């Protein structure tokens, strides 16, 4: 350690990147009263080495806060490990500061060697976390967001070529490897939140092993929770581990019997805390979104009768995939306000990484979660209610780590925690549909990175199903490698089925409409969660958008109406009011607009044919269904009794159309539907469905897929429909790219 300190001290004498411990802190800069007396002369001001400008007073204020973080005392040991090793594991609790401080230290390292190997990139499992961290770190480094520090999330890039430190979602770094397989732009790669075990993070963990061998100068930092430390260290060959612990112990209260009546227990605890007079916000971890909605209604209903003297109760539902703007700093006006406001956040497992606040003093944990587990045999997700892992329980406890008087209320027993909870969170790779992952792996195999040593190997059955689906979608050639068609599909940041539908729309002259559908089903739902009592008004508004051909067409109507409103509105506020009045999500529609623009850019970049929009004509409606069937022929269902009970074509599951489907609202159920989404749960709902005919299905379905379907009445009906088709109209597995010039196909390959 002493050798490193001496080395850094010598560098700091000549280098402008002086470490914070060595910096001079003039009181005039550290104060915020604006008094100019005693300000140092310009030549004495310390310059920020990242942008060459003098540090602001806010920098020194934030520096003091950073020095209070648990990880700060490990800075020198980390820097020494970084200098002497290619891989370093940082093990720490969720509030120790590793996600914000380690990337800054790595940026200092890259600066010290003049960025000769590149900059720093730090991955996150959630896009909200990536954005929040980038904003926070830019503030702490006293630089501009989008310049020296930036972020890259799906369909949003807030970086320039000059960006030194990038935060990104793990899937975006994975996609970057398709064009830059050895990640030559970066000298340090940080994989954060590895304990989340997302599919993209696990793939990166494996692929980066080969990248590290090819690039000895590259540094890899892996941030994780303590329970995963030993496994990660051995996975990379017994690499050094920096361990960090939070300061404050947390009081844990186990409530036996509370799990049986979890709703009543949660409501009772919330109001007991509120009436106790103890200050602090509350976070409640529930099992699923439906539980959030039910708890929200009950708390709001009971909270309306509160005595004003105990203060207001502000209930905030935090759903997955929604932007998190929680826990803004309390301003001075609120501090002086006589009425105390306590915030209660209702969330699921998604909130474990999204909630950062020193105001949280109470956490209520039901100990259960509803997870999506993919079944490759039936090509559908099942929503399974199961205990959370011990690592998740520990992360929820760590939300209180910075609070000296925090309390965690567990609605389960200590015995349940030790016996029924598995130690680690299941890897998404072992529970998810792997079709997109296999398509990506086939793509990087072209660059020699196809072999991947996964930390947890996926089930062989899931891999076989993924390969089979890609074969059905014509993404593979006869040797099992990516076809030219598959390479083009991998260019789109979408599910392979959706990519196939977009490419098919080039043949059927409906690209404009298909891009709108793709954007709308990729963005969060445009239909808002309707408050209790407003259901009828919402449905009345939504009826104006309904299209007789189905939900995919209804989504086009919604998007087109939104676009018309944007064009004809005086300002953004008018657009937001229109969305509010129509019970539509303005943020979701904005996101759909951004997604559509990026998909259109990809279409133009690889020079695929693009026809003028013709939405509304009968021919165009038929062409849209052809394009959809080209990608979603594996997602077909038939109404077996005329009452809306739809039997899946590939298995024996029965489902109903979602209540918000255009067919459910109009009470007109088609016999055959193509659907976008289906999950096995309490309500087996089909989401986003449109009517198709058996004849159209048989015209477009790959014959070898149809021959592999299990025997059923539905298959017999389809076989009869095929007998009425002219021979030349039966699907010939045509390559959609026939319309593309040969040069276009050449441009689709990796450069």
TrEMBL record:
| Protein name in UniProt | Putative pre-mRNA-splicing factor ATP-dependent RNA helicase DHX32
Pfam families hit by this protein: HA2_C, OB_NTP_bind, WHD_HA2
Record bears the keyword Transcription regulation: no
From the broadest rank down, the organism's phylogenetic lineage runs: Eukaryota, Metazoa, Chordata, Craniata, Vertebrata
**Primary localization:** mitochondrion
Q: Which organism is it from?
A: Mus spicilegus
Q: Which family does it belong to?
A: Belongs to the DEAD box helicase family. DEAH subfamily.
Q: Which GO terms describe its cellular component?
A: mitochondrion; spliceosomal complex
At the top level of its lineage, which domain of life is listed? Eukaryota
Q: Where is the Helicase-associated domain?
A: 465-556
Say if the entry is tagged with keyword Hydrolase: yes
Ordered alphabetically, the record's keywords are: Acetylation, ATP-binding, Helicase, Hydrolase, Mitochondrion, Nucleotide-binding, Nucleus
Look at the named UniProt entry and state the broad enzyme category this protein falls under: hydrolase
Q: Where is this region: Disordered?
A: 1-35
Enzyme Commission designation = 3.6.4.13
Q: What subcellular locations does the record give?
A: Mitochondrion; Nucleus
Q: Which reaction does it catalyse?
A: ATP + H2O = ADP + phosphate + H(+)
Molecular-function annotations in GO: ATP binding; hydrolase activity; RNA binding; RNA helicase activity
